[in-house]
Amino acid sequence: MLPAFPDSLREAALGSLERLEVEARTGSVVTEVDADGVSWRPTSVGLQPGGQDAKGGRIEAQTVLWAAGIAASPLTASLGVPLDGVGRVRTESTLTVPGHPNTFVVGDMCALEQDGRWLPGVAQVAKQEGAHSARNILRAIAGQSLERFRYRDYGTMAVIGRGRAVADLGPFKASGFFAWLFWLFLHLFWLIGFRNRLAVMGEWAWAYVTLQRRVRLITGGRRETEKVE
């Protein structure tokens, strides 16, 4: 559960989910999804709660929501360079492609390890990589050596549900309602323009008070198309 966070915040996130009546099954991997449910198996017997079958099991369900991440752009496969498990380019520390010092990769297509951990695929990493690549391009034009990229971690936050979140901002760590409020105001701060901030704040306030979200859903049965000969 949220492996990028410290243990205390991971436990707080799990507790928030349990209060929302969510049963979290950790240490498991999905092996099959079909029309009737999901099959799973444990990745480590030691991580399974007591009473669960070490060989795995099945969860019957009519609706399955899959949120296990996505693969990188298929463009990376055409480069003929080392890739990671999801197809991202394993770049040099300068964010250049191995063997191609004039080609830079940033964002969701970049896989870079720092301090023994892979950098997460979040907006802050992509923004810093983009700015650093621009500086390195200017240095290359001027005939100077390229500089190594160093990600500056400003913290990580995650929303668990209505009024619940976790925040890891260096020495400052929080969970629950206060962390959720901090997440809201921080996202408003990074929006461009006062009008956008006011509009988003109004939308969030309305959704919070009315327990509703403004979404567009396609409902009803499928419309059969008649073939006219």
Q: Low-confidence parts lasting 5 or more residues at pLDDT below 50?
A: 46-52
What is the name of the CATH superfamily of the domain at 75-141?
Answer: FAD/NAD(P)-binding domain
The CATH architecture of the domain at 75-141 would be: 3-Layer(bba) Sandwich
What is the percent of helical residues? 25-40%
The 3D shape can be described as globular
Largest sheet: 3 strands, antiparallel
Query: What would you report as the Rg, rounded to the nearest angstrom?
Result: 23 Å
**SSE succession:** HEEEEEEEEEHEEEHH
Which fold name fills CATH's third level, the topology of the domain at 75-141? FAD/NAD(P)-binding domain
Structural class: alpha+beta
Strand content: 15-25%
Spatial gap, N to C terminus? 57 Å
Report the CATH C-level class of the domain at 75-141: Alpha Beta
Quote the average pLDDT. Answer: 83
Number of helices: 4
Give the strand tally: 12
Give a description of the structure.
This protein is an alpha+beta fold. The chain is 28% helix and 21% strand. It has 4 helices and 12 strands. Among the domains are: 54 residues, no CATH class; 67 residues, FAD/NAD(P)-binding domain, CATH 3.50.50. Strands 1-2-3 form a 3-stranded antiparallel beta sheet, with no helix packed on it. It has a 3-stranded antiparallel beta sheet with strand order 10-11-12, sandwiched between helices.
